[in-house]
Specification:
The complex is a heterotrimer. Chain A has one domain (about 1-215). Helix content of chain A is about 85%, strand content about 0%. Chain A has helices at about 1-15, 20-35, 40-60, 65-75, 75-80, 85-115, 125-150, 155-180, 190-215. Chain B is an all-alpha fold. Chain B has a domain at about 20-50. Chain B has one helix at about 10-50. Chain B is rod-shaped, with a radius of gyration of 21 Å. The N and C termini of chain B lie far apart (about 65 Å). Chain C has a single domain, classed as Up-down Bundle (Four Helix Bundle (Hemerythrin (Met), subunit A)), CATH 1.20.120. Helices cover about 75% and strands about 0% of the residues of chain C. The two termini of chain C are about 35 Å apart. The chains are: A mainly alpha, B mainly alpha, C mainly alpha. The interface of B and C includes residues 6, 16, 23 and 45 of B. Chain B: Required for the export of heme to the periplasm for the biogenesis of c-type cytochromes.
C-alpha cells in the first residue's frame, strides 16, 4: 500500500505528471474574480471565503481524471486489480495520493490567495481549517467519479457533471465554516458537519468506488 | 366558460401551457421512439428469419 | 406465481401491452378531470387569487419528481441484488420522466413565485434541492448514454443512483442549514386534510379533491410512460443483441 502511494506520488511530481497545475489554476481563478466583480475591497472581503472554496473545488475537479486515466491507459490498473491488495485499499490510496498532490497544496496556498481577495483577519485560520478538513472529502468523492468514467474516451466533461452535484454538501458546510469564521461568528456546527461528511465519505465511499472500478475492469 | 382569472391570468395560463407542452413533448418523444424501435426490431427479426 | 415472473422480458412486454391501454385511459381521465375541475370549477384563494390553480400542476409534478427517483432507487437495488434486466431498464426508462417532472415543478414554481414572492427564483432550500435533483437526473442519464456495454452501464448507473440518493439526502439537510426559506411547508397532507376538517393551515377541501385526482392522474401517467419506455428499452436491447449476433455469425 505504501509502495503504491510512493509510486503515485513520484509519478505525479515528475515532469508531465501535472503536479502544480491545480495550484496554478487556483491562482488564476482567484485573480480573475476581481476582474469579474470589480475591485471594491468591501465586496471582495465578503465573497472571499466562497470564492476561495469554489476555486479550490474546481482545481480539485480539474485533476481528477488523472487519478485512474494514466494507469488505465498503460494497463497498470489491471495489474493492480490482480494484486493481493483489495480494491478498496487501492482506491483509498489513490484518493490519498490525489489529496497529497492536489488538496494539500491548495490548503497551504489558500491563505496566501486570501490576501489577494482581502479576506477578513480571523478568516485565514478558518479557511485553512475548513479546507484542510474538506478537501479530503473532495478527493474521495472525486475518486468515485473518476472510477465511474475511467474507461470512457471523453469522460472528463461527464465526470464533472457526475461529481459536482456530489460536492454540494461539502461545499456548503466548508464555505459556511470559512464565511462564519471570517465574520467572527460561531463555527462549531458547520465544522462538525464538515468533519462528519469527510470522515463518513472516507469510510464508506471507497467501497462504492471499488465496486465501480471492478465493474469497469471486467 | 373561461373562468375569470383576474390580474394573474398570464401567470396561470403560462404555467399551464408550459406544463402541458412539456408533458405532451415527453409523451410524443416516448411514443415515437417506441414505434421506431418496435419497427426496427421487427425488421431485424424478419430479416434474420429469412436468412435462417 | 410471483412478481419475479415479470422479470422475464417477453412476459413483461406482453403484460405491459395488456396493461398499457387501461393505464393510459385511466391516466387521461384522471388528469383531465383533475385539471379541468381545478382550472374551471374551484374558487380563487383570497390571498393568492387565481394563481392557486397552479397547485394542480405544481404539487403532483414535484411529488412525481421525487417518487420517480425513489422508483429508480428501488429498481437499481433490484438490479444489483437479483440482476433482472427489466429492472435496470425500467430505472433507465424512468429517469427522463423524472427529469421532466422536476422541470415542470421548477418552472410552475417560478411562474407562481413571480407575483407571489416577487421573484422568479430564490435560493430557498426546497427550490435549491429540486435544482440539485435535476442535476442528479442529468448526470444519471448522461452516464447511461455514455457507456456502450449494457450490463456495465446498468451496474454503474445503479451504483450512481445509490450513492446519489445518499448525497441528495445530505444536500437536502445541508441546504436547509445553509438558508432558511421562503417556500411554505407542505400543506397538502397536514392533519385534517383527509378527515375533512378545514383549518387555515392546510389546503382546503375545495382545492384538495381536484388536487388528489390530478395527483392520481400524474401517478398513472408516470406508470403508463414507464411501461411504454421500458418496453422500448427492452426492444432496443434485443435489436442490438440480434445485430451483434448477425455480425459475429
Amino acid at each position: 500500500m505504501i509502495a503504491l502511494l510512493t509510486r503515485d506520488l513520484r509519478l505525479a511530481v515528475r515532469a508531465g505528471g501535472g503536479f502544480g497545475l491545480g495550484l496554478a489554476f487556483f491562482l488564476i481563478v482567484t485573480v480573475l474574480v476581481p476582474f469579474g466583480v470589480g475591485p471594491q475591497t468591501g465586496l471582495l472581503t465578503r465573497i472571499a471565503p466562497g470564492i476561495l472554496w469554489i476555486g479550490a473545488l474546481l482545481a480539485c475537479l480539474l485533476s481528477l481524471d488523472r487519478i485512474f486515466a494514466l494507469d488505465w491507459e498503460d494497463g497498470s490498473l489491471d495489474l493492480l486489480a490482480t494484486a493481493p491488495l483489495p480494491m478498496e485499499g487501492i482506491v483509498s490510496v489513490k484518493a490519498l495520493a490525489h489529496w497529497i498532490t492536489t488538496g494539500l497544496p491548495l490548503v497551504l496556498a489558500a491563505p496566501a490567495l486570501g490576501v489577494l481577495l482581502n479576506l477578513a483577519g480571523p478568516g485565514y485560520l478558518w479557511l485553512f481549517v475548513s479546507l484542510a478538513l474538506g478537501t479530503p472529502a473532495l478527493s474521495v468523492i472525486g475518486t468515485f467519479g473518476a472510477a465511474l468514467t475511467v474507461g470512457l474516451k471523453r469522460g472528463g466533461l461527464l465526470m464533472s457533471l457526475l461529481v459536482l452535484p456530489l460536492y454540494v454538501p461539502t461545499l456548503i458546510f466548508g464555505a459556511e465554516v470559512a464565511r462564519r469564521g471570517a465574520e467572527g461568528l460561531a463555527v462549531q456546527t458547520p465544522l462538525l458537519m464538515l468533519a462528519g461528511i469527510s470522515f463518513g465519505v472516507a469510510a464508506l465511499l471507497p467501497f462504492a468506488s471499488a465496486a465501480v472500478l471492478r465493474i469497469n475492469l471486467r | 366558460m373561461m373562468p375569470e382569472l383576474g390580474k394573474y391570468a398570464g401567470t396561470v395560463l403560462s404555467s399551464y401551457a408550459v406544463s402541458l407542452v412539456l408533458i405532451v413533448l415527453l409523451i410524443v418523444v416516448s411514443v415515437l421512439r417506441s414505434r421506431r424501435i418496435k419497427a426496427e426490431l421487427q425488421r431485424i427479426e424478419e430479416r434474420q428469419k429469412k436468412n435462417g | 406465481m410471483s412478481i419475479w415472473e415479470y422479470a422475464n422480458p417477453v412476459k413483461f412486454i406482453r403484460t405491459a401491452d395488456v396493461l398499457l391501454p387501461w393505464v393510459t385511459v385511466a391516466a387521461v381521465i384522471c388528469l383531465v378531470t383533475g385539471l379541468v375541475w381545478g382550472f374551471f370549477f374551484t374558487p380563487e384563494d383570497f390571498r393568492q387569487g387565481s394563481t392557486v390553480k397552479i397547485i394542480y400542476l405544481h404539487v403532483p409534478a414535484a411529488m412525481m419528481a421525487i417518487n420517480a427517483w425513489l422508483m429508480m432507487l428501488i429498481a437499481s437495488l433490484i438490479w444489483i441484488v437479483r440482476r433482472h434486466h427489466v429492472s435496470a431498464l425500467a430505472a433507465r426508462a424512468a429517469a427522463p420522466i423524472g427529469a421532466t417532472m422536476t422541470v415542470i415543478g421548477l418552472v410552475t414554481g417560478a411562474i407562481w413565485g413571480q407575483p407571489m414572492w416577487g421573484t422568479w427564483w430564490a435560493w430557498d432550500p426546497r427550490l435549491t434541492v429540486f435544482l440539485i435533483l435535476f442535476l442528479f437526473y442529468l448526470g444519471y442519464m448522461a452516464l447511461w448514454e455514455a457507456i456502450e456495454d449494457d450490463d456495465t452501464a446498468a451496474d454503474l448507473t445503479s451504483i450512481l443512483c445509490l450513492v446519489g440518493s445518499v448525497f441528495a439526502l445530505l444536500s437536502r439537510y445541508a441546504v436547509q442549514f445553509w438558508n432558511q426559506g421562503l417556500h411554505q411547508g407542505s400543506s397538502v397532507l397536514r392533519a385534517g386534510a383527509v378527515t375533512g376538517v378545514d383549518t387555515t393551515e392546510k389546503v382546503s377541501n375545495v382545492y384538495f379533491m381536484p388536487l388528489l385526482v390530478s395527483g392520481i392522474g400524474f401517478v398513472l401517467l408516470f406508470l403508463a410512460l414507464v411501461l411504454l419506455r421500458t418496453q422500448t428499452e427492452i426492444r432496443a436491447r434485443r435489436s442490438r443483441a440480434l445485430l451483434a449476433r448477425e455480425r459475429s455469425a
